[in-house]
C-alpha cells in the first residue's frame, strides 16, 4: 500500500500547496511593501520552498526551438515519427539550408532509469548544429494501461532494432548510461543476422557494460541484495486512478530518493543556498529552479524490465561473461564487425565507474582497430559525461568527428590506381 499512501499524501497536500503559492505571490508582489523587507522575502522564500518540496514535477519539455548552423540561426521542429506503447521516437527537424547537404543521422537512446529523456536536452542541443537528431522518449509506465502488455529487456532490444530499421541505412546510435547494454546487444543481434541496417557507429557513454570493474555504490548495493529483495521492497502496483492501474512498477519517487541519497549533503546545501539567495535577493535562482525542475521529474519503470536489468547487468554480469540472452538466443558481441565503436567515460563518475564502459572495447573483439576509440574526460562526474560545458567543448566534437569518419555514406578518397607507363593518380 506504500504507493497508494504516497498518492494519498500528495492529494492531501494539494490545498496547502495552492495556499502557499497564493501567499508567496502576495509576499513577492512589488506592490506589497513587505516584499522589499527581509521579513517579506523570508516569507516568500519559505513558501516557495514548501511548494517546491511537496509538488509532483511533471514531464519537462525539450523547448529547443532553434539552433545555429554555421553562421545562421535555423528553426527546429519537434515531431513524433515512430510510436509504440512504451516509447515515442522524437525527431528534431531543422530548417537546414538546401546547399548544406546531408548531416549524419544520429539516434540517441536515452536512459530508461527514472528520468525523462529531457535530461539529455543539453546533449541534443550540443549535437543539433552538426547532426540530424532523433531521441527515444520513453513513456511513464504508470501511464500505460495493462492491456498494452509488458515491457522487458527483450522488448527494449527489439525497440532499438525497430527504430534503426525505421531510420534506415547509415544511422549512428548513441547510448547514454543504462541503454549501453541493450544497444550493444541490439547491434550484436543485427550483426549476427547480417542485417544491412545495423548502425554505422555506436557511441556508449557512461554505461554499465561490466560492473565488476571499479564498482560504485550502485553496483555494490545490487551485489549485497538478492533479486527477491528488490522484488519485495521496491516493486509496487500503480494505484487507481492512473491509466496503468495495477501495473507492477518500480516507482519514480523511490528512484528519486535513491538518486538524492547518494549525494544528500550536496542537495541540502543547494537548497539552503537557494533559500538564502531568495532572502537576500541576489544570485541566480532560475538556474536552481531549472535544474531541479528537471532532476525531480521522474517516471515509473515496468517491474519486469527493472528486475531483469538488475539481475543481468548488476548481479550476473551476463554481457561481459557472454551469457546474455535475447529471445532465447545468446547475444554474441564478437559478431559485431561493421559497427564502429566509441566509448566515453568520466573520470569522477560515481554511477558507472571508470573502466565499466571501456569494457565494450574488450568484448567486441572483432571490430577493426581503425574503427574503435575510447575517450576519458577528466574532471567530470556522471552527469558531465553527457551534459555541461566540458561535454560541449570536449566530448561532443569528438562524437561528431567519429560519426563523420565512420559514415557509410561519406565520400571516400579516391583509391590510387597505377596506369601503365604513368604515375599513380
UniProtKB/TrEMBL annotation:
<feature type="domain" description="PHB de-polymerase C-terminal">
    <location>
        <begin position="206"/>
        <end position="406"/>
    </location>
</feature>
<dbReference type="InterPro" id="IPR051321">
    <property type="entry name" value="PHA/PHB_synthase"/>
</dbReference>
<protein>
    <submittedName>
        <fullName>Polyhydroxyalkanoate depolymerase</fullName>
    </submittedName>
</protein>
<dbReference type="InterPro" id="IPR010915">
    <property type="entry name" value="PHB_depoly_PhaZ"/>
</dbReference>
<dbReference type="Pfam" id="PF06850">
    <property type="entry name" value="PHB_depo_C"/>
</dbReference>
<dbReference type="InterPro" id="IPR029058">
    <property type="entry name" value="AB_hydrolase_fold"/>
</dbReference>
<dbReference type="InterPro" id="IPR009656">
    <property type="entry name" value="PHB_depo_C"/>
</dbReference>
Amino acid at each position: 500500500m506504500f504507493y497508494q499512501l504516497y498518492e494519498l499524501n500528495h492529494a492531501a497536500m494539494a490545498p496547502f500547496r495552492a495556499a502557499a503559492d497564493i501567499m508567496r505571490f502576495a509576499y513577492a508582489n512589488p506592490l506589497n511593501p513587505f516584499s522589499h523587507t527581509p521579513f517579506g522575502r523570508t516569507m516568500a522564500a519559505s513558501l516557495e520552498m514548501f511548494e517546491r518540496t511537496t509538488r509532483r514535477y511533471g514531464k519537462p519539455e525539450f523547448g529547443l526551438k532553434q539552433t545555429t548552423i554555421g553562421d545562421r540561426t535555423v528553426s527546429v521542429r519537434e515531431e513524433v515519427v515512430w510510436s509504440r506503447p512504451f516509447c515515442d521516437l522524437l525527431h528534431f527537424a531543422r530548417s537546414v539550408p538546401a546547399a548544406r547537404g546531408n548531416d549524419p543521422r544520429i539516434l540517441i537512446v536515452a536512459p530508461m532509469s527514472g528520468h525523462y529523456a529531457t535530461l539529455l536536452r543539453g546533449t541534443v542541443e550540443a549535437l543539433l548544429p552538426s547532426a540530424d537528431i532523433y531521441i527515444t522518449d520513453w513513456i511513464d509506465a504508470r501511464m500505460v494501461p495493462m492491456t498494452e502488455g509488458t515491457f522487458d529487456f527483450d522488448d527494449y532490444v527489439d525497440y532499438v532494432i525497430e527504430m534503426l530499421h525505421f531510420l534506415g541505412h547509415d544511422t549512428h546510435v548513441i547510448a547514454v548510461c543504462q541503454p549501453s547494454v541493450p544497444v550493444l546487444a541490439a547491434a550484436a543481434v543485427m550483426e549476427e543476422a547480417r542485417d544491412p541496417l545495423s548502425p554505422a557507429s555506436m557511441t556508449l557513454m557512461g554505461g554499465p557494460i561490466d560492473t565488476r570493474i571499479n564498482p560504485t555504490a550502485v553496483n555494490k548495493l545490487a551485489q549485497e541484495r538478492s533479486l527477491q529483495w528488490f522484488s519485495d521492497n521496491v516493486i509496487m502496483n500503480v494505484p487507481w486512478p492512473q491509466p496503468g492501474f495495477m501495473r507492477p512498477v518500480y516507482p519514480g519517487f523511490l528512484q528519486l530518493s535513491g538518486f538524492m541519497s547518494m549525494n544528500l549533503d550536496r542537495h541540502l546545501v543547494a537548497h539552503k543556498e537557494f533559500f538564502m539567495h531568495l532572502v537576500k535577493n541576489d544570485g541566480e535562482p532560475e538556474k536552481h529552479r531549472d535544474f531541479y525542475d528537471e532532476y525531480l521529474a521522474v517516471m515509473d519503470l515496468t517491474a519486469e524490465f527493472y528486475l531483469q536489468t538488475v539481475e543481468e547487468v548488476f548481479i550476473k554480469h551476463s554481457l561481459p561473461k557472454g551469457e546474455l540472452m535475447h529471445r532465447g538466443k545468446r547475444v554474441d558481441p564478437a559478431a559485431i564487425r561493421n559497427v564502429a565503436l566509441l566509448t566515453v567515460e568520466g573520470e569522477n563518475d560515481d554511477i558507472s565507474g571508470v573502466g565499466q564502459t571501456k569494457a565494450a572495447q574488450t568484448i567486441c573483439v572483432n571490430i577493426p582497430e581503425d574503427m574503435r576509440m575510447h575517450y576519458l574526460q577528466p574532471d567530470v562526474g556522471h552527469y558531465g559525461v553527457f551534459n555541461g560545458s566540458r561535454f560541449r567543448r570536449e566530448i561532443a566534437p569528438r562524437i561528431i568527428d567519429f560519426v563523420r569518419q565512420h559514415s557509410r555514406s561519406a565520400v571516400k578518397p579516391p583509391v590510387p590506381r597505377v596506369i601503365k607507363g604513368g604515375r599513380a593518380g
